[in-house]
Structure formats: C-alpha cells, structure tokens
Write a structure and sequence with these properties.
The complex is a heterodimer of chains A (321) and B (260). Helices cover 76% and strands 0% of the residues of chain A. The model of chain A has no long low-confidence stretch (mean pLDDT 90). Chain A is mostly helical. In chain A, helix 1 crosses helix 12, helix 2 runs parallel beside helix 4 and helix 8 packs across helix 10. Chain A starts with a helix and ends with a helix. Chain B has 2 domains: 193 residues, Rossmann fold (3-Layer(aba) Sandwich); 62 residues, no CATH class. Helices cover 41% and strands 22% of the residues of chain B. Chain B has 11 helices and 10 strands. In chain B, the strands form 2 sheets. A 6-stranded mixed sheet of chain B has the order 6-7-8-3-9-10, sandwiched between helices. In chain B, 44% of the residues are buried. The chains are: A mainly alpha (321), B alpha/beta (260).
Amino acid sequence: MLGLIDYAIFSLCIVGIYGLLSLALNIQWGMTGLFNIGIGAFFAIGGYTSGILTSPETTAHVGGFGMPIPVGLLAAMVLSAAIGLLVGLVTLNLRADYLAIATIGIAEIIRLILQNEGWLTGGVRGMANIPRPFEQITGGQFEWAFLVMLIVIIGVVFLALEAARTSAWGRVLRAVRENEPTALASGKDATRFRLEAFVVGCAIMGLAGALYAHLFSFISPEAFEPMLATFLVWVMLIAGGSGNNKGALLGALVIWAIWSGTQILTGYLPAELATRAGALRIILIGVLLIVLLVTRPEGMLSEESDRRRDRRREEREDLKD
Amino acid sequence: MIEVRDIVKRFGGLVAVDHCSLTIEQGKVTGLIGPNGAGKTTLFNIIAGFLPPTSGQILLDGEDVTGLPTFKLFHKGLVRTFQIPHELPLMTVLENLMLVPEGQSGENLLNAWLRPGKARSDERRVRERAEEVLEMLEMTHVRHHLAGNLSGGQKKLLEIGRTMMTEPRVVLLDEPGAGVNRTLMGKLSEVIRKLNQEKGYTFCIIEHDMDLIAELCDPVICMAQGKVLAQGTMADIRGNEAVLEAYFGGGAARVVESSA
C-alpha cells in the first residue's frame, strides 16, 4: 500500500514536470503559433546545466561545483533562455513548417553534442549523483517535499503565464498568431514579440529539465529523446487544449496517465509480447493524437472556453460601471 | 506629405509598378484609381513597407523611408488598411481595436508582471478609446463578438476603426468600399470626411467605386500598367482620353466623344 502511494507521488512529480513543459509549449505554440519541435533540447540544456553546477566533485564530467539547487534551477532557466534567444534570432523569421524543421534539427544537434561530448556531460554513461532536494531533512523520503515544491513552482509559473496571457502583451501574441500583417500594420514588431514568447518558453523548459535532473538524480541523453521529451509534450498540449494554460496541465496529467498506465499493463504480458508492446504504446499515443485532432481539435479545455470566461467577466464589469 | 519618386517594382519578368512618381498632399483626400492590375495595391504595399521596391524612393515629410518595415512606419504616423479585411477572427471586435494604440505599458512583459497597476490603467484608457471608436462606427452592440463573425461590411468598418485607434497623419485605404452596400458606403464616406475635416487625417484611397471617389477625393490619380496616367479633379479624369482608353480600350475615347 505504502509502495503504491510512493509510486503515485513520484508519478505526480513527473506529471508536474511534464506540466511545466506543456505550459512552456503553450506560450510558444498555443499563444504565439511557434512550431517548436525541439522541446527536448531546452529540457536537456536545463537538466545538464543544473546537474553540472550542483553535483558534487567528480571526474566523470565537467563541473561538480556542488552549488545549491536553487542556483542550478536559476542557471538552467538563464542558459536555456540564452540558447533559445540565439536559436530564435536565427529561426524565428521562418514560417511555421520551416521553423519546425529548423527546431527539430537544432534539437538533434544539441542532443548529439550532449551524447558525444563526454568531458562535458558524461556522454552516454550519463550524469549521476545529482543532488535531490530535501533529502537530508526528510531522511531519504524526499518525494513528498519535492511534490510540494513542484506544486508551488507550477503555481507561480501558471499565474505568471495567465497574467501574460490576459495582458496587452498576450493580445499582441494572439494577433501575431492570427494575422501577422495586421499586427505589423498596427505597429507591432512581430519578430520581437515572437522572440520574447520563444525565450520565455525555453526558460520554462530549462526549469523543467533541471527539476527532472534533481528528481531522478541521474540524467542521460536517452531521457531527452524526441519521443519522450518532445512528442509526448505536444500530445499533452493538444489533448489538453492548445492556448489554455489549465488545459496544458490537464493534458499532461491525462496523457501521462495513459502513457504510464499502458506501461504497467505491458508488465503483465509475456516477455516476448512485452517488447513489442513498447512500440504499440507509441502507436497508441499517435492514434490518440489523430482521433483527438479529428474529433476535438480544440482539446479538452479549449482556448475559446477560457476566452469566453474572460469576456463574461469583462461584460459583468461593464454592467457595474 | 508622401512623395513617391520613380518607384519600380518587378516580380520576375512582370513590371507591376513602372517608374511611378506621385504626391499625396497633406490634408487632402487623394483618390487612386485605375483598371485591375494597374499596380495600385502594389504601390500601396511599397509605400506601407510591406514590399521593398526594386528601385525608387518613398519620402514621408521629406524623410527617406524607403524599405522601412511597416511597424516602424506606423510609428511615424502612416497607417494602412487592407483590400481584403484583415481582422483578427478569433479575437473580439473590442480586442481588435485595443491591439492598436502604441506605447501600452502592458505590451512589455515585465510591466505586465511587475507593474500590473500601470498596465491595468493603460488597459482602461485603451478600452475607453476603443469604445469611442465603436460608437462612432455604430458598432457598440457587436463589441464582444468575434471579429470573424462580422459581416463583410462590418469588417470593412473595423479596418477603418483600427486606423482611428491611433493618431495617424496619413491613412492608406485599400478599397474601403468594395463589397459594401450603399447604406454602409454612405456611412463610410461620412466617417472618412469627418476624420479628414475634423481630425486633419490625410487620406489616400484606392477605390473602384467612382461615386465614392467623386464624392470624397480631390485630387484623383489614375494609374495604368504601373504608371501614372493622369491626375486632377474627378471631372478632369472623366474627360481624359488616356484614362478612357485604359479602362475601355479600343478607341473608347472616340466613341464617348462622338456619342456626347
């Protein structure tokens, strides 16, 4: 029983990290229409940055500076944002599908660098001994505390993104997404706004990566493969409701439940079937994505429903005046 | 106010605008007419910074603004509308207008996060301005509707409304009357006249509806095949042989003359 609760808490921590990724993608794709399929790269940069800065002294890779975890988290955000800025400067004048191709290419380049530059990252052997927060205080049972910390972080990020969404800034992003010439003809520097949205999203992806590293205490390039680190996040956002921050979080929860639920089920299969089932799970997620796009393209919680609520609130305020 | 100097625009082998020079004078409503494919919209796109010219210059109040991006020209007081309404379909009418004003503090993400009070008060100010514009356009009742659901005519009005959300010095209207019914057309020209006379906006209007042009515009410039063909009052233009030839071809001028 206790094992089950531990498992649930650990799973919720993973859901929370995916929730952050999904929120980050939402500001890029949902609000601004930036087709970023290089999520894994920024996720990885965050993880490795915090790992290098906070892990104890080692010869396995560069760093081992033993810095406090909050410093690692912050540095992860800053470095992911900085690399996002560079990538953005080069690619953001590309239109939708070209941006997608450019980001997937850059993501693979970054992943391969992390995999092959062993002096920097530990290469394929990965990076171990990344400190876990609250480990001493909780006597090894750190997951509870981690989950609480994660919920607080998600809460802050969520509120910040909601404030951004409902601000004049968010309005310009939507305008850029819906009709760029109109945004330009309204005096808005579309490229600047796209770049800002991209960088903010990358910073949050970096934060998620750092949290992932501190949760598992170990990272390797495999953790940042496109399937897990990019594709799954896209499915989460689309399922939850692109453009809707609550939807982004709900999508992370539901899709992770399906993803990890099917993993448990395959555990009961005979060995030879179990290996094939792994591929089937990926197919299942793909089919689910297609079904969603056909039957409910706006996702479980649509952007429109959120905007309608905003408008109703506005109309109520009209009446009060 | 705006001086177009010897502008050429080539698309591959096609010369859309061919050594075109003209002036849009301060305080006037200039009409730009010409048969389809004369290069009017291309010229507009060049003036408004949507397209770079192949050669030539655009001067705004004597300053060379050739090739400046659209959003920068906007801040210099040059605003345009689109031939096909470019509303933001999934945003409300109010939001479509509230997008426009410059210098909104909430457009800076850090202000939106750290100075919500200032952002909110700016938002209220912009909102009030939008409400005024909607009242002037008699569109207050649809302010919370999604712009994509508006009728064609209302979308046209929204295009003009957008220019009213700022303090433009010169407004380029690309076919404001196309696909608009007569009643709405009357309202449209009334709004344009009012903005011109009361607020001193300079207008340049591309239009195929000659009644609207005759009513509003002086001078009128006629383009054909990328060149300026004639310029003058509407009456001058009506009697101009080259213009008749361009519109009707095949010695039309002679036919008109003989029938008169």
